Amino acid sequence: MRLLLVLGLLLATTACGSLGNDSGKVRVAAGFYPLAWTAERIGGHRVDVTNLTQPGAEPHDLELTIKETVAIAEADLVVYEKGFQPAVDDSVAQNAQGATLDAATVADLEPFADQPDELDPHFWQDPLRLADVGDAIAAELSKADPKHAAAYDAHARALRRQLVALDHEYATGLADCARHTIVATHDAFGYLRKYGLHVEPITGLSPTPSRRPPTSGGSRT
Ligand SMILES: [Zn+2]
User: Fold this and answer.
1) What is the pLDDT of residues 164-220, one digit of tens each?
2) Is residue 147, in this structure, part of any structural domain at all?
3) Which of 77, 103, 147, 194 lies at a C-alpha separation of 20 to 30 Å from 110?
4) 47 in any annotated domain
């Protein structure tokens, strides 16, 4: 039933022209905010980015609406992180027709400190890992839109310069801290240990004790 609805919507949106690209922009669907932000930085005005996790939604346990399923189906590029949002993984496998980029394949994930057999998906806390994902997005956008490859490459290099500077600021700014322990709702900040920080998560690996979406605002990644 759901698939039929999606197909119906797709037919409705593609009936008048070639698959979607009327705006001339590269359509990107991004799993959650850090990926959407990076895609916007690399693509600039040449991309139209849909963040599949709306503000206030819980990224881990995200459930997709028809609108987001269509965004995945129509995207020239889906940027997601396999294993982080099962609903997105499923929809990408079933519906994506364009290119897909799994950020986990370029972010060089490390295991959780307290759970060595599970990889920590929260790589974007490390500016240098986010820069690597930026490079990969630039490469994918260049394949989708070769005419503007030089611009995507320049944006990726500019973003990397900023993220390298941020990494340096973190390292020098945190070098003289009297305390090194930070308390977080869940274990989302493990990549900050490269700066000597130690994370004490209140609810462990899970973003919520019950794995249910929070009842009041706040976007938790
Ligand atoms: Zn998280």
Assistant:
1) 999 999 999 998 888 899 898 888 999 999 999 988 888 776 675 544 444 444 445
2) yes
3) 77
4) yes
Q: Is residue 190 part of a domain?
A: no
Q: How many domains does the chain have?
A: 1
Distance 121 CA to ligand 1 centre (A): 8
Q: State the distance from the centre of ligand 1 to the C-alpha of 2, rounded, in angstroms.
A: 28
- Predicted TM-score of the model (pTM): 0.83
Residue partners of 187: CB distance under 8 A and separation at least 6:
112, 114, 120, 122, 199, 201, 204, 205
Q: What is the CA radius of gyration of the chain?
A: 19
Residue 206 Cα to ligand 1 midpoint, Å, equals 7
* Pairwise CA distance, residues 113 & 54, whole Å: 29
